[in-house]
């Protein structure tokens, strides 16, 4: 007789790459007889796929682990694993601090999860935070053919060699590695066969992808060009990009590649040259602004988003005003902004000139107000215009569907459920707090 499948509950923290990694970990553990569940209490294994980017995100993991204690007491066979960047950064220490944890697996080792799970099944504990020679994506060649929703992430590049002074990513995710084009294209084909219409290419430095393709300088533009030839794949996005890796080919692709959506997340972090230098960003505010001009020349309606850090060590009022000026000049569609959080092992954490928390709060509030106003303006500018929408799921109201516009705005439309997974033209009729409303056009 077949054994009943074991149940796996994964909680994903942090960035989109973790969302992708969680899917792949679930697939890897599928080989050990696990199916995923949305209900933590019925799980045989709980995996926390963690984020180390800011202190708050990392500490949340420990409080969530503490909250698993009663469940582990009620179900002593429950396996608890910590994956992702906290696992990479803290390794063994997690086992010491949290005796209920059975396994710790870094982001480069999740293809080894089945072996680790088996070891835990025999009563052991397991830690793997190597950067192994064997490629985890190669080891997890095929993806299951199950039907999927219309959008998917696909990791094409991992790691970062930029070493921004505040950032743990080069330490937790390691050096930049690009996946080979043929593997990416075949994974994309598989996703499209399973019903995917829109793929977001992921990488910590996605536009530094340097694969093995001819043309368009061999960079991400060439890969986008290859993917655009896949019938049935209608939309392509990519994130996250460093300004210094926006090459001519990629900028031009925004002008001529119809499947490449008019949306670009291009973090700048600060508008002050002094702070950009201290952050080791290797560009000035002016260079960033000129880059934006070139991108907008190629694709005038492109929507730009960014990340900002306020209160980087040594940031003065004048530095912060320079950030506000840059934001006013660019006019973003939306953006994330964070208070600087000192991360162990990063150069900025050593600096003596940490900014007062109350000053950081004040700056964050002002920046978020400005960015919020810009988001509202960007949404309102859509009212009365037509765009295409890829419908993803039913809305909250009966007879309503929700999907994403080309500019990645959520749009609510009165539409039949049969439009799920389809792209339709929609006229935008209103703008709400975080989404748009529209009606099917023509
Ligand atoms: N403190 C605050 N924000 C940070 N980020 C990265 N490291 C830190 C840090 N130490 C932000 C950056 C980055 C985004 C993913 O997280 O803005 O672009
Ligand atoms: Fe971190 Fe900078 Fe690399 Fe982005 S480019 S992952 S902020 S080091």
Task: Describe this structure as you would to a colleague.
Helix 10 runs parallel beside helix 11 (248-256), helix 11 packs parallel to helix 13 (285-298) and helix 14 packs parallel to helix 15 (357-380). With 442 residues, this protein is an alpha/beta fold. 35% of the residues lie in helices and 22% in strands. It has 15 helices and 19 strands. The protein has helices at 16-30, 55-67, 69-74, 84-90, 92-97, 113-121, 136-139, 169-172, 181-193, 220-228, 248-256, 273-278, 285-298, 317-330, 357-380; strands at 6-12, 34-36, 45-50, 79-83, 103-105, 126-128, 151-155, 157-158, 177-178, 198-202, 235-239, 263-265, 303-310, 334-339, 386-394, 400-405, 410-414, 423-431, 436-440. The model has no long low-confidence stretch (mean pLDDT 94). The strands form five sheets. Strands 2-1-3-4-5-6 form a six-stranded parallel beta sheet, with helices on both faces. The chain folds into four domains: 6-128, 3-Layer(aba) Sandwich (Rossmann fold), CATH 3.40.50.12160; 143-261, 2-Layer Sandwich (Transcription Regulator spoIIAA), CATH 3.30.750; 268-381, 2-Layer Sandwich (Transcription Regulator spoIIAA), CATH 3.30.750; 386-440, Nucleic acid-binding proteins (OB fold (Dihydrolipoamide Acetyltransferase, E2P)), CATH 2.40.50.140. Residues 53-54, 166-167, 267, 269, 307, 309, 338, 340-341, 343 line the site of 5'-deoxyadenosine.
């Amino acid at each position: 007789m077949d054994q009943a499948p074991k149940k796996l509950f994964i909680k994903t923290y942090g960035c989109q790459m973790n969302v992708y990694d969680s899917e792949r970990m679930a697939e890897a553990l599928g080989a050990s007889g696990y199916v995923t569940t949305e209900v933590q209490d019925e799980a045989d294994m709980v995996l926390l796929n963690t984020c180390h980017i800011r202190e708050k995100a990392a500490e949340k993991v420990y409080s969530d682990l503490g909250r698993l204690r009663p469940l582990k007491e009620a179900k002593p066979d429950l396996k608890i694993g910590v994956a992702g960047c906290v696992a990479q950064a803290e390794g063994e220490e997690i086992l010491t601090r949290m005796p209920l944890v059975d396994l710790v697996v870094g982001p480069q080792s999740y293809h080894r999860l089945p072996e680790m799970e088996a070891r835990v099944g025999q009563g052991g504990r397991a830690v793997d935070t190597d950067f192994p020679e064997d490629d985890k994506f190669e080891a997890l060649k095929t993806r299951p053919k199950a039907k999927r929703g219309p959008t998917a992430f696909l990791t094409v590049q991992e790691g970062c060699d930029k070493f921004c002074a505040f950032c743990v990513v080069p330490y937790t995710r390691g050096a930049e590695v690009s996946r080979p084009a043929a593997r990416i294209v075949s994974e994309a084909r598989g996703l499209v066969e399973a019903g995917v219409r829109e793929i977001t290419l992921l990488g910590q430095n996605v536009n530094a992808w340097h694969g093995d393709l001819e043309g368009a300088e061999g960079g991400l533009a060439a890969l986008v060009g290859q993917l655009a030839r896949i019938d049935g794949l209608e939309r392509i996005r990519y994130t996250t990009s460093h300004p210094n890796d926006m090459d001519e080919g990629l900028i031009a692709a925004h002008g001529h590649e119809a499947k490449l959506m008019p949306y670009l997340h291009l973090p700048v972090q600060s508008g002050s040259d002094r702070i950009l230098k201290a952050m080791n960003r290797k560009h000035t505010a002016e260079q960033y602004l000129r880059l934006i001009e070139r991108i907008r020349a190629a694709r005038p309606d492109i929507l730009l988003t960014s990340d900002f850090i306020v209160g980087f060590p040594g940031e003065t009022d004048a530095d912060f005003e320079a950030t506000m000026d840059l934001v006013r000049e660019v006019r973003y569609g939306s953006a994330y902004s964070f208070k600087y959080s000192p991360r162990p092992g990063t150069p900025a954490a050593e600096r003596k000139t940490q900014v007062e928390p109350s000053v950081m709060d004040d700056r964050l509030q002002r920046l978020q107000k400005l960015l919020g106003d810009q988001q509202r303006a960007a949404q309102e500018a859509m009212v009365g215009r037509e765009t295409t929408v890829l419908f993803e799921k039913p809305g909250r109201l009966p007879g309503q569907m929700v999907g994403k516009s080309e500019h990645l705005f959520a749009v609510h439309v009165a539409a039949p459920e049969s439009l799920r997974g389809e792209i339709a033209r929609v006229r935008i009729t209103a703008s709400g707090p975080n989404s748009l409303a529209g009606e099917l056009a023509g």
